[in-house]
Specification:
With 144 residues, the chain is of the alpha+beta class. It has 4 helices and 7 strands. 8% of the residues are buried.
Length: 144
């Protein structure tokens, strides 16, 4: 079965309105349509003709080597030895490590440095996390 779904592309900051063609549960194409009802669609469709992220979307979503679950290192750093762990374990490990750093160095011991909006992890979420954690240690392209 094939269907067309209206989406918001998260490949970069503008969050262009787009469509995906889904066949048998897999994305086979992402495209933009000038006939869409979005007021900005005509501009997005012009830009998207050369958008490499849009053309790569099916591979990004469905690449056979895409990591879809957390891994935990079980060997020495650099030994490339890993085991698959449950999401709850991975999140608990991260939370515990953040708490250890906070207790030893204070909230300033954790910081973010981002090069702009990556599309998949918007700066506003990172800023909110740092605010709740109590750390002022945040830098982006605007501070450089």
């Amino acid at each position: 079965m094939e269907e067309i779904k209206k989406i918001v592309c998260c490949g970069c900051a503008p969050r262009c309105p787009a469509f995906v063609r889904v066949k048998d549960g897999k994305v086979v194409e992402q495209f933009f349509n000038k006939a869409d009802d979005s007021p900005m669609q005509k501009y997005y469709s012009i830009i998207s003709k050369s958008c490499a992220r849009s053309r790569a979307a099916p591979e990004v979503v469905d690449h056979p080597q895409r990591l879809n679950f957390p891994l935990k290192r079980v060997g020495e750093r650099g030994s490339n030895k890993w085991k698959r762990v449950h999401w709850d374990e991975a999140l608990d490990d991260i939370a515990n490590k953040l708490q250890e750093v906070r207790e030893q160095f204070g909230p300033e011991g954790v910081g973010f440095n981002v090069a702009g909006d990556s599309g998949n992890s918007p700066i506003e979420y990172q800023r909110r996390f740092m605010n709740l954690f109590g750390s002022p240690s945040f830098a982006s392209h605007s501070q450089v």
